[in-house]
Amino acid sequence: MKTMHRTALPVVVASVVGAAAGSLAWGTSAAADPAPVEKTLLALAAGTVGADGAASEPVVFTGQASITGRVIYDTVFGAPPVLELIVDLSQVTGKGLRTGKAYQVASQAILHRPLKAFEPVELGFSFAADGGVTLARSALATFGVYYNAASGVSTTPVQISTVPRT
Fold first, then answer.
1. Is there a single domain that holds both residue 22 and residue 84?
2. Measured in whole angstroms, how far is the alpha carbon of residue 59 from the centre of its chain?
3. C-alpha to C-alpha distance for 163 and 150, rounded to whole angstroms
4. What is the pLDDT of residue 9?
5. CA 101 – CA 165 distance, rounded (Å)
6. Where is the signal peptide (predicted)?
7. Which of 120, 126, 117, 143 lies closest to 45 in space, CA to CA?
8. More confident residue, 84 or 14
9. For residues 50 and 160, what is the distance between their CA atoms, to the nearest angstrom?
């Protein structure tokens, strides 16, 4: 038994030292990988959401959506890179067609998408008249994201529409 521990001890020590050296090497290679470059764009947002009941009214939306995109690389497991999108619709406002009420959008979302040359995006969001969240309704924001390694991320205008019934 005693001899077994003596011969196993150098193997265990060598394994621990090797693992530590490997993790140090991983840290070095992670620094060599490209750093994510963030790009924020302002996209025009417009569209109309129809009435969804007798008590509601059609709402016309206008404003600017802020869309921030960056590529995230997996330096640990080597998975394919993903595109992270941060969508902020808080600068988009609506106006009721019948009453003229102001409708506010307070929506932000973080999306992870496969890195492709073009990716269509659909994002559901809520809106309410004068911040009355108890009567909030939902709408759909649709836009496209283009990615080019040389120029980065670009988007199409944001189209706002009624959420389709299923």
1. no
2. 26
3. 35
4. 44
5. 25
6. 1-25
7. 143
8. 84
9. 11
Share of the chain above pLDDT 70, in %: 77
Indicate whether 87 and 149 sit together in one domain: yes
65 and 97 in a single domain? The answer is: yes
- 72, 43: one domain: yes
Name the residue range of residue 86's domain: 39-162
CB distance 74 to 96 below 8 Å:
no
| Residue 122 near residue 159 (C-beta atoms within 8 A) | no
pLDDT per position as a tens digit, 119-139? 999 999 999 987 677 788 999
Three-class DSSP labels, the chain:
CHHHHHHHHHHHHHHHHHHHHHHHHHHHHHHHCCCCCCEEEEEEEEEEECCCCCCCCCEEEEEEEEEEEEEECCCCCCCCCEEEEEEECCCEEEEECCCCCEEEECCEEEEEEECCCEEEEEEEEEEEECCCHHHCEEEEEEEEEEEECCCEEEECCEEEEECCCC
Same domain, 49 and 113: yes
